[in-house]
Amino acid sequence: MKSYNLTNSTPVTARSFDVIATTNSMSVMQRPSGAMGEQQDSNQVSLSGVLELNLVTSFSDGSNKIISGRELTSDDQNSNNVVIEQQLAKQNDLKVGDTLKVETDKTKKLKIVGIYKATSLQMLGMMSDPANVIYASYTLINDLTNQKGKVQSATYNLTNPTKAKTFIKAAKKQINTNKLTISTDDMAYQAIKVPLNNVKSFANKIVWLVCLAGTIILTLLVVLMVRERRHEIGILMALGEKRHEIIAQFLAEMLTLMILALALAGIGGKFVANALGIQLLTQQTTSMTTNFQKQAQGPNQDTQAPTKQRQVPQKGQQKIPIKQEKIQLAVKVDVIFLLKLSLVSAVIVFLAIILGAIGILRMQPKKILVG
Q: Are 224 and 358 a contacting pair, CB within 8 Å?
């Protein structure tokens, strides 16, 4: 297990600030909430409890970003620290360090330690505007709802997604499955497998192409080398050198150069492979993202110039944000890989020597020296 997060939420009523009221098409500024006679629901926000804010999906995938202050961490347990959205902060002239009041059965004073920017619209129950979501520690929600020690969900992140079934099997032995459910969400893993498999297929073809091209090029170089050293070969054969001994000499020379090349490949190959892998993977993910956006928009999607109004999906619709993350790869060059590379290189060198020298070695020493 790499990490875990605990989450819960509860609606609360804003007492010292105005919420962002959402209509079917846009968000409008809410009138001051201090006036009597207003409906309580119109001044409600969602208080979302977390253990680690950076493990919430909307923050880990970059949809939401901290633009001022800091994120919530496990150190914020049993505190009243919160993180609010920038539109809510701007509407109420709030900044990091300010306080605001909310109410359920009791009134709580919250301290703002961070401000985030929501870059995508999300359907959040009855409130479809993410600006009305305030993040706090899950312990604060427990305090407001009088449910100490309880959470609505726990999310576990695994270092190896292929071990998910094993994890679930072990977890079911530890919980009451009649009251609790456990499931996996490997959409991100499955999504990245497609471009990775495409890159793998492309890389395999490149390897075979390089092997073939390397054999041809090296054979031509050996042919040129043999022609330049034909008199040396003729003299060696006239002195009694065996053909296989001459081939072994050429092979030893080429293997020495191969060892030097492998050393350079082992040192610089990691950086070259990382840059090339990121380039190929970025092209694949960009292509997939573009196709997905076209499918999501539909063939008759109208394109309009952006306005300053805050657009919200109509009822029954869901706006799917698509964000392309910066791709990072961990390329490792281990001993086993170098051994495989050495074996393939040795085969290429051997084939090149045989194909390049077979013509001249079939000749007699006299013909070699005369020619």
A: no
